[in-house]
């Protein structure tokens, strides 16, 4: 049985294909279109999923969309009516889009599916799940738990912004919710916009910037913007926000509260901006911890699952691990809207169809998020030749040794191997790798490779058995969703200003190739970890194809491209006159 899950039309569109309840393929549309956070119908991602399974769309048993458009439209109408006559401009802008397009998504999607496969009679039936239920299902049904509390926190779905559910076996029951406009995700997004960054895209920049500031504005946030109850539930003062009916996140009253106008993109980041970032990060962490701690006491369960965009806040997540009382926490690696495609499909399989769950002992169903396309060596060689590149083919037993030596010599390596990752993190399949011991490497990577802000930190990928000694981590962190404290002073390139690092633990059985590479570097240097950052430049998606990787390699100061057993050296291209 095949089930196709789809998320689209807001941001981070994606598709996921299940075969008999197992996730066999999943990908974000942005990786194919090369438009970051692509929102359009994921036609390319769907085609990939079908091609991977070797089936046609006609062979898919069920197709499901990750939210319910009519409920979303209901929220939009009720919000405008309750705030009228405010928001008339925004209303006039939004209504034609909804009436002509978004309100009739079923018909629109059926048309898009016909473009993928025109044969077959009639329109395909499309099922719909609610947005937060898709998030909850993506967290629980993909987790290694047979029962858990499920916490979903994001900007907003149809109405819900925060939900609590209980997952047992093949059933999920929502038991609590906070509704729009009161939203921890939108609060964080409002500060993201105030700091001059992109909403639904750059929230992680605020998290990184927070380490450089002092949280001196927390009391101001609690006094004027956010009321938090003992159980972690909250209420926002909407007098300071404009996102309900306006075209901006905050208003002039918000600016007056903090004594400054919003930062414009590209403007200098001052101490004030850093303190603002530190303050909203601390408030978010505190509220999440209060909420999770209460849930553990209320339900007395050992396991917590999380999803929704706020669940990507690894600084807050680590506080939950340490202090919430839950023994184990599992977070969906594609916690944002892309993961909704996974959750929608799993919800149909287990709840709508009533199929049993088979929970592997100690394993989740995400397969290290390596769910995207891969490319055979022969095709890679053809592409390298077509790009007129000088390259070397290495024997499998020599490949990791060569790459590890380049990294130890101070080279920056673009590493492309196996199936592409699903979700926002590069996890050793589409990664840029470097030596964490090099004190200049953070600056080199930010300035010459990623072309991004200098305050941005880099993550370490560490052999799992060394995670506790180096970072104090007692739990696995295969998806870079937790931070640890660095225990060694000779790792400047991966140590953030506050002494933390966003850690990826690498397991020999689950991620064999990447483990072998890091282990080879360890044997060579005595250091059991590498810098691992995504194979892309700022404001571009992670690379998908060999051609994408070559383009990124050519337009940055990357030294080596290691791609499916082939080595491409920047110095060789210059020597032989190849395009660089």
State the CATH architecture of one domain. Answer: Alpha-Beta Complex
What would you give as the CATH superfamily of one domain?
A: Carbamoyltransferase, C-terminal domain
Strand runs, count? 21
List the uncertain runs. none
CATH topology value of one domain = DHBP synthase
Structural class: alpha/beta
Distance between the termini: 47 Å
Keywords for this entry:
single chain, 580 residues, alpha/beta, Nucleotidyltransferase, domain 5, DHBP synthase, 9-stranded mixed beta sheet, 5-stranded mixed beta sheet, 20 helices, 21 strands
Notes on the protein architecture:
The protein is α/β, with parallel strands linked by helices and 580 residues long. Among the domains are: 2-128, Nucleotidyltransferase, domain 5; 377-576, DHBP synthase (Alpha-Beta Complex), CATH 3.90.870. The protein contains 20 helices and 21 strands. A hairpin with a 6-residue loop joins strand 6 and strand 7. Helix 7 runs antiparallel to helix 11.
Task: List the SSEs and their pairings.
Blueprint: E1 2-7, E2 14-19, E3 22-28, H1 30-33, H2 43-53, E4 62-65, H3 69-83, H4 88-100, H5 105-116, E5 126-128, H6 131-140, E6 147-153, E7 160-168, E8 171-179, H7 184-194, H8 203-210, H9 218-224, E9 226-228, E10 234-236, H10 252-258, H11 271-299, E11 303-307, H12 314-323, E12 328-331, H13 338-352, H14 377-386, E13 392-393, H15 396-408, E14 413-416, E15 430-434, H16 441-449, E16 459-463, H17 467-471, E17 482-485, E18 500-506, H18 512-525, E19 529-534, H19 546-554, E20 560-563, E21 566-569, H20 570-576
Parallel strand pairs: 1-4, 4-5, 6-11, 11-12, 14-20, 16-18
Antiparallel strand pairs: 1-2, 2-3, 6-7, 7-8, 9-10, 13-21, 14-15, 15-19, 16-19, 17-18, 20-21
Helix pairs in contact: 6-13, 7-11, 8-11, 11-12, 15-18
